[in-house]
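User: If only I could read backbone structure tokens as easily as an amino acid sequence. Underneath my words sits a plain record pairing an amino acid chain with its backbone structure tokens. This is the protein in question:
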Amino acid sequence: MIEETDQRPAVGPVTRLLEQKKERKPQFHHYPDYFYAGFWIRFFAYLVDLACISAINGILLGLPANLFGLTKNDELFSIYGLLTLAIYLAYFVLLTKLNNGQTIGKMIFGIRVVCFTEEELSWQTVLVRECACRFILRGSVFMLGYLVTIFTPNKQHIGDYFSDTSVVTLNLLAAREDFTQG
């Protein structure tokens, strides 16, 4: 004998998942794969940013340290180490937020950060991507998280996944705008 139950069919959870997809936030900034900036261009932009941060550290921290004969200890839990970390993170957070997703290195190489769920980058997104994730990814072992960029379709590293962002090439965006308007 077959026993009747009051349970819903197995299709029920699938239906709920489809309904949740409809309720998701609007999607912004989705482009073809070739619009996203690859590992090497992002790496060279990062090197330019590191040179800028080094110059800022030299002016703000190195000059006073040399004038007053203070020691520069690069350990994280020293005053000098904490200040260099603060400058490093502040550089990326402030420039990314205030320059529409671009640091000086990104400006030079013509790339910028875009978010898939927001029209403009919010403070929350920038703080997650540029502060929390950069702090974690700056460790020697964790830097491998940047290599994920090579293998993902939207060229996202680990920090991009957490903040739902990626980096695009501005020349291709400009060409697309000219093509769609013309």
Remarks:
- The first strand starts at residue 111 and ends at 115.
